[in-house]
Design brief:
Layout lengths: L1 E2 L5 E2 L12 H14 L10 H13 L14 H10 L1 H17 L6 E6 L4 E4 L9 H6 L8 H4 L3 H8 L3 E4 L11 E9 L5 E10 L7 H20 L4 E6 L11 E5 L5 E4 L1 H7 L11 H5 L3 H7 L6 E4 L5 E7 L43 H20 L4 H8 L3 H16 L6 H7 L3
Antiparallel strand pairs: 1-2, 3-4, 3-7, 5-6, 6-7, 8-9, 8-12, 9-10, 11-12
Helix pairs in contact: 4-8, 12-13, 13-14
């Protein structure tokens, strides 16, 4: 099959063919429809690539121009590397593992910041038959979509969604021999922190690059979430204990005020997406257990069975301290150590956690509330009622402190111990 004199796929003089049998033919037909006929090539290429072409078409009129691949200024590079020091540190182990695994291939590992500036590349230099990769695989080069057009890392930096871009799916002609797969890395704020990319030139991957890059990006993201959680209780949980410590584990960060601050993707799949409003993220409402009971889990190294509010049984490990040593047990009274929970390692279904009977409260509940209130009142008194200074000493936000005070006033006016919000607001600073 060849291009006829009108530029369409098919043999000369034959009717136009609407379908293509190979990936290369589909991309060629898609480019013809989009760039020459102004037709949206839906079904021929991925929607992410089409959207990228549309953005690039508005910004770059000439698809055949030479892309410079110039590095950013030294001052910007210095600032970029300094700003992404934590990302580079937590990604170091996985980057070394990837480079070792790919040492026998021509693939290059590229890590960019959230704006598309390269902050790490494979140590091994690109081969002579990869002239474009020699220029792009350099620290400081900006490979964002607005600079180099459609690429996998450029799309991820723009949309935050993993994707692959193959051959002529790249916007500029100079990149038509490239193949790349990229995945996002997010931080505790939920915003993009970086992009992990695999790129090869003049040949195909020969393996599932999208799955590989997604696996390593997830591992790096999990490390970054924990590193950035300097004042959170970290929960690691999954339906099977064998998945803990793997890229498939679910993670949750519990703030000192008893709310869930963040979830990784696996955690969101088990618990659902976090509500936008902070006052709807109460840990007892979403997990079915209060902060004190979760803190007790941090005293045990082995995974413990837990029944979530949804009824799902999971295995949980809790970490009381963040990497910098912060510990917020100062904000709660730790109840006496409970009897260890016997775990049948051969069983895959966690035993249900005993729930308190209707109308009864656990012995530690009032102790936790009383300690929390006493701690806040004493801290406020020490600072002559200055909420900002008291919140700073307690290592919580002013909003959290105001919610505690308002909750106590409302509880004294209209006692209502059954409200989930009241329980959450009284059980941790």
């Amino acid at each position: 099959m060849a291009l006829d004199r009108t530029g369409r796929l098919g043999t000369p003089g034959a009717p136009r063919q609407l379908f293509a049998s190979t990936p290369a033919q589909r991309v060629a037909l898609a480019r013809q429809q989009f760039f020459e006929e102004g037709v949206r090539p839906s079904g021929l290429i991925g929607e992410a690539v089409i959207q990228s072409w549309m953005r690039c078409n508005r910004a770059h009129a000439d698809r055949q121009r030479i892309v410079p691949f110039d590095p950013v200024t030294p001052s910007r590079l210095h600032a970029t590397l300094a700003r992404n020091r934590e990302l580079l540190e937590v990604a170091r182990r996985e980057l070394v593992q990837m480079e070792h695994a790919l040492a026998g291939t021509d693939c290059r590992v590229i890590l960019t910041d959230r704006e598309g500036v390269v902050v790490h590349v494979t140590q091994q230099p690109a081969s002579t038959h990869q002239p474009v990769l020699c220029k792009t695989a350099r620290v400081g080069v900006n490979i964002s979509e607005r600079v180099v057009g459609t690429t996998a890392p450029g799309i991820v930096a723009t949309t935050g969604q993993a994707c692959t871009v193959d051959g002529a799916e790249h916007y500029f002609d100079v990149l038509c021999h490239m193949q790349c797969a990229a995945a996002p890395i997010r931080g505790v704020s939920g915003e993009l922190a970086g992009v992990l990319d695999l790129t090869v030139e003049a040949r195909r991957f020969g393996f599932d690059a999208a799955s590989m890059v997604a696996l390593y990006a997830t591992t790096i993201e999990n490390r970054l979430l924990q590193a950035q959680s300097r004042d959170h209780l970290i929960l690691r949980f999954q339906a099977s204990p064998t998945l803990l410590g793997t890229p498939l584990e679910a993670l949750a960060g519990i703030a000192p005020d008893g709310t869930i601050a963040w979830l990784n993707n696996a955690g969101a799949r088990l618990l659902g997406r976090l509500p936008e409003a902070a006052n709807e993220r109460d840990v007892e409402c979403l997990l079915g257990h209060d902060l004190a009971s979760l803190l007790r889990l941090g005293r045990r190294d082995a995974a413990q069975p837990l029944r979530l509010a949804s009824g799902l049984g999971v295995w949980v490990q809790a970490h009381l301290k963040s990497p910098d040593g912060a510990d917020f047990r100062h904000a709660v009274t730790m109840p006496a150590e409970a009897e260890p929970i016997a775990i049948d390692r051969g069983a895959q279904t966690p035993a249900p956690v005993a729930r308190e009977a209707d109308g009864e409260r656990e012995p530690h509940a009032e102790t936790l509330r009383e300690h929390s209130r006493k701690l806040i009142e004493e801290t406020l008194a020490a600072h002559d009622g200055n909420v900002s200074q008291a919140a700073r000493q307690l290592r919580v936000s002013r909003g959290t402190l105001y919610r505690r005070l308002r909750g106590w006033r409302e509880a004294e006016a209209v006692p209502d111990e059954s409200r989930c919000d009241d329980r959450g607001e009284g059980e941790g600073v």
